[in-house]
Structures are given as C-alpha cells and as structure tokens.
Specification:
There is one protein chain. By secondary structure, the chain is an alpha/beta fold. The protein folds into 2 domains: about 200 residues, NAD(P)-binding Rossmann-like Domain (Rossmann fold); about 100 residues, UDP-galactose 4-epimerase, domain 1. The protein contains 12 helices and 14 strands. Strands 3-2-1-4-5-7 form a 6-stranded parallel sheet, with helices on both faces. The protein binds 2-amino-3-ketobutyric acid (AKB).
Length: about 325
C-alpha cells in the first residue's frame, strides 16, 4: 500500500497533483502538506492534510512517522522571481528543505522521492533551441542554482545511497484551478484571467520572450508517469527534460484574439522577470524522457487555449 506525502500541496501544481494521486491511490493514502498557504477545499474535504515546514527537521520526521509515508512528491519551492527578492527564504526552503527530505528518505527507507526541477536549471551559456538533456548548466538565479542542486543531490543520493529519486525539468505551467505566484512564466496564466474578465492584459515580458510551456494535465502526467516508470529502464534520475509547447506573449495574445476579438495586450516590462526569462531556453530536447519512460505531451497551444478558456470561464462565472 502506498502512503504518499505531497509537500507544497497548496501551490499551483500541488493543488492538482493531490486530487490526481487520490484518484489513483485512494483519498486516505495521499497526505497534503502545506506550510503557510491555504489548501483548496477540494483537498481539505477529500483526505488527510497537515501543516509541514520542510525547513524544520522535526516537522519532516514527525509527519513521515505519523502518516507512515513511503513516497514523497516534494513540491515546496520558492519560485524564480520571489527567490531573487528573498534569498534567505529561498535558501532555507530550496536547499535546506530539500536536504531534509532526502535525508529522511534514507532514514525511513522511503520507496521513492519525486522532486521537480525546472528550465531555470539552465542559463545564458546553454544552447537555447532544443536544449539537450546533458548540457551546460550555469544558471544566474538563486532558484536556478537550487534546481541544479536538486538535480545533482537527487542523482547523488540515488547513486551513492540507493535512494530512488526522480525528477523532470518543468517549463512554465499553465492551469486554471490555482494561480501561480512569484514565477517568471506566470504571465501565461494571468493573460487568460485578463482576457476573460476585462478583454485586456498588461504583460511584464517583452512581446518576443519565447519560452517553453506546458498545460497542467501534461505536467501531472509527467510527474506521475515518471514515478511509475520501471527503475530498470531509467539511466537518468532527477534531471529529465520534458517538452510540450513554446510561444511568446505576442503569439499567445494572437491565439487569444482568435477567441476574444476585442482582446488587447500591452507591455510594461519588469526588468527582474525579463532578465530571468532572457536566461532560459526556447525549447527542450526530451528524447531521453521519451525513450526511458515513454513521455509524450497531449496538449498544444490551440487545444490548451480552448480548454483553459472553457474551464476558467466556468470558474470565474460561479
Ligand atoms: C518560474 O517561472 O519560476 C517557474 C519555473 C519555470 O520554474 N514557473
């Protein structure tokens, strides 16, 4: 029987991963953990939930013991833009928090730990188009450095200590249930709220800031399919490229105009987030993930936009 802990369960991804895991493994077997942020009603009404500060070793231990956890999806992380503004918190959560989870993995002989990495693990010197799985990784943000740390630490615990640690490098995630906060790719969600509520949006990135993105159902599949993959087939561990779609704010606005002809976008550039976006790739080569655990994405820009508009309109109407 699997007993799964999801840290960061109140965030954009956690809010959708917990229900998906509960559907597959049973409500009682998936514990949603958050520190300061409120969990969705969908999560609190359907199964166990608790407050966990991953920077506190005692908290991590008592939660694993209390719920007899054997698998952790470790999503707690301070995202790119906020991490630049609060280095101390980013260090505590992204470095110390991860270290606690990995050490707990050894102490409690956990079956598996899933830790998402990000396109932020790359930098200016990385080839921008179809970025290879193995390439130059010299990020220039504290968030990016923490993601390289998580990839290297995951691979180290796997090879030196036999702990099964797995991770994918996620691009910007687009979804309608819970809005992302403090990231650089957040505009690609906020633009849909702007279009539906007031037919306009002010974008903080330049019109041509081309970035890799993914619709939430594909991100959930990436995390869950990698977790289920046969360990014998995996030659990589915490550092799989996954690719879905790439676009710029101008291209996304054009797709929205097809659905909302009155929609207008204007631009007020945020220098911090622009400089972060400028250091990230355009698209990733995900051949390794396709070969080793059969990854493939279902949504493209057009099908994502249709589904986003349908669901978000319904949500904002109620
Ligand atoms: C961010 O923008 O910080 C995140 C990411 C790409 O990891 N969405």
């Amino acid at each position: 029987m699997k007993r799964i802990l999801v840290t960061g369960a109140a965030g954009q991804i956690g809010s959708e991963l917990v229900p998906a895991l509960r559907l597959e493994f049973g409500n009682e077997n998936v514990v949603a953990a958050s520190h300061n942020h409120p969990l969705t009603d969908e999560i609190t009404n359907s199964g166990p939930h608790t407050r966990v500060d991953v920077t506190n070793w005692g908290d991590v231990n008592s939660t694993i013991q209390k719920y007899e956890i054997d698998t952790i999806y470790h999503l707690s992380s301070i995202l790119s833009a906020l991490a630049e503004q609060n280095r101390e918190r980013a260090y505590e959560v992204n470095f110390t928090g991860l270290y606690h989870i990995l050490e707990a993995g050894i102490k409690y002989k956990l079956e598996r730990i899933i830790v998402p990495s990000s396109i932020a693990a790359f930098g200016h010197e990385t080839p921008r188009d179809k970025t290879p799985n193995e390439t130059i990784q010299k990020p220039t943000t504290i968030y990016g450095i923490s993601k390289v740390f998580s990839e290297l630490m995951g691979n180290y615990y796997e090879s030196k200590h036999g702990l099964d640690v797995r991770g994918v490098r996620l691009p910007g995630i687009i979804s309608w249930k819970v809005e992302p906060t403090a990231g650089t790719t957040d505009y690609a969600v906020a633009i849909f709220y702007g279009a539906i509520k007031e037919n306009k949006y002010t974008c903080f990135l330049t019109p041509d800031s081309y970035l890799p993105m993914m619709y939430m159902p594909d991100a959930i599949s990436a995390l869950m399919d990698l977790a289920k993959a046969d360990r014998e087939r995996l030659n990589h561990h915490s550092d799989y490229n996954v690719n879905s779609m790439s676009f710029s704010p101008k291209e996304l606005a054009d797709v929205i105009v097809k659905r909302f002809p009155e929609f207008k976008i204007n631009y007020e550039i945020d220098p911090l987030r622009q400089s972060i976006a400028d250091s990230w790739p355009n698209s990733l080569d995900d051949t390794v993930a396709r070969l080793e655990w059969d990854w493939y994405p279902r949504y493209n820009l057009e099908t994502m936009a249709d589904d986003m508009i349908d669901n978000l309109s319904r949500k904002l109407d109620t």
